[in-house]
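Need C-alpha cells for this chain, all 572 residues.
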Amino acid sequence: MISICYIYFGVLMFFSLLLFFFSIGFMIIDYSLMIEIEFLSFNSNIICMALLFDWMSLLFMSFVLFISSMVIFYSYEYMGGDLNMSRFIMLVFMFVASMMFLIISPNLISILLGWDGLGLVSYCLVIYYQNVKSYNAGMLTALSNRIGDVALLISIAWMLNYGDWNYIYYLDFMKDDTSMVIIGWLVCLAAITKSAQIPFSSWLPAAMAAPTPVSSLVHSSTLVTAGVYLLIRFNFALSSNLMMGLLFIASMTMFMAGLGANYEFDLKKIIALSTLSQLGLMMSILALGEYTLAFFHLLTHALFKALLFMCAGCMIHNLGGHQDIRYMGNLVNQMPLTCCFFNICNMALCGLPFLSGFYSKDLILEIFSMGYLNFYMYVVFFFSTGLTVCYSVRVSYYSLFGDFNFSGFHNLSDEGLVMLKGMSGLILLVIFGGSMLMWLMFPTPYFVCLPDLMKVMVLFVIFLGILFGYEFSKFMLSYELKGLKFLTSSLFFASMWNLPYLSTFGVNYYPIKLGGVYYKEFDHGWSEYFGSQNIYLSLKNSSNLFHEIFNNNLKIYLSMLVIWIICLIIFV
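Here are the C-alpha cells for all 572 residues:
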C-alpha cells in the first residue's frame, strides 16, 4: 500500500513541477497552444476533443497536482487503518483527472466530461463512510450539482447555432448575440450550483461527510473552484445584467457563510463555511470584471485552505474522530507543530499582512474601494471580511487556547510524521506563495490610489474582527456553561438562513404530499369511479340487461308485437 501512495505522490509531484515551469515559460512569452482532435463531423457540426494550454490552465493544473500529491501522501497515515485504501486512492486520482479535463477544455462537450466526472466521483467520495448521514449528504450533493449539469447540457444544445462547441472562439465578438446571452446565463447557473452560491449552498457543509483528505482537496482546488474557473473562462460573454445579478448572489453568499460560521461548532463545517465565504468573494470580484484577481485569489486560497483542512484532520485524528470544537482546547501545548501550521493558515485566511491570503484579499478590497460601486456593497464586503477574522479567532480560541474538555491528554501528540511531512510541504507556499504569484501574474503592478482612511480600512476591519471574535467566543462559552439555549435568531444564522431545510424538505415535502393527494383523490377517488370502476359497472349492467332479454326473448317478442299492433290501431 505504501508503494502505491508513494508512486502516485511522486508522479503527481513531478507533473506539478513540470507544468509550473511550463506556465512560467508561456507567461513570459505570452504564448497559448490549442490542440484539436476531430472525432466526428455531420452537417457542418464538428465533434472534437480540444485542449487549451495557456499560462492560466497550466498554472492551475500545477497547483491542483501539487495539492493532490500532498493530500495523497497525507492520506497514507490518515486513512492507514482503512481496508479499502487502494479504492480511496483511485477515487482521488479519478477526481483529479476529471479536474484536469475541465481545466484544459475550451470545448463545452469535453468540459462536460470533467464536469460530470467531478460530480459522480464526489458522490462516491462523500458516501465513502457508509451511513445514513453520508448517504443523505451524497444525494444532496449529487442532485444540487445535477441542476448545473442540465444547464450545461442545454447550453451545448444552444451552441449548435454556431456549428461548433469551442466556445473560446465566440466569447468576445458574439457577446451581444441572443444565443450567447442565453448560453452565458446557463453557464452562470452551472457555476453557481458547482460553487455552492445561494440558493444551492446547503450541499457544501453537508459534503463534510467525506474523509478529511477529500475535504482538503475538494475545498481547495477541485470541485468548488470548478464553477469559478468556468466563469473566469467565460468572463467575456457575460452581460452586464448577469454580472449585477451574480454580484448580488455572491455578496449574499459571502455574508451568509461568514455569519453562519460564527455560530457553528463542527470544526470541518466552520472551515467549509469559510470556503463558501471565499468563493463568494471570488465570484463578487469576478462579477466586477476583475477575472485575473479572482484567479489570483483562487490560487492563494487553494494553498492555505488545503493546509487548514489537513491540520483540522490531524486534530480530529488525535481526538478519536470528534469534530466539535467545544471538546478541544489547549491543543497548542500537546500538538505545537500542527497548531502552528493551523494558526498560520488562519492568519492567511484573515488576510494578515505578508501571508499569501493578504496579497490577494487586500488587493481585491482595495480595487473594490477604488472602483466604488455603492454603499451596500461596500458594507457587505468589509463586514464579511470582519466576520472571516471573527470566526477564525473563535476557532483558535476554542481549539488552541481554551480549556481542554475531552477524555485525556494521552491521545494527543505530534507523532504522525507522515501527516506532518504532508503538511510541511504546503506551509512554505502558504507563507511565500502570495508574493511569488503576485510577481509572476502581474508584470505591470496594480496602482491603487486611495485616501488614507480607506487605505487602512482593511487593517482596521481585521483588528476589529479579532477583538469581536475574542469577546464573542468568551460570551458564547459563558452562555453555554450556564446551560442556556440559543435564541431563535441564533438558530436561523447557524442553519445558513434555513437553506438546508429548504433544500431538503422544501423540495421533497410538497411533491410527496401532492403525490399522496393524487394517489388518494385521483387513483382511489373520482377518476377511479368515473374511469375503470364506472366502465366495469356499465359493462356489467349492460350484460345483465342483454342477459334478461336473451333469457325471456319469446315473452318480450310477443309483448313488443302487442305494443306494435296497439300502436297501429291507435295511429293508423
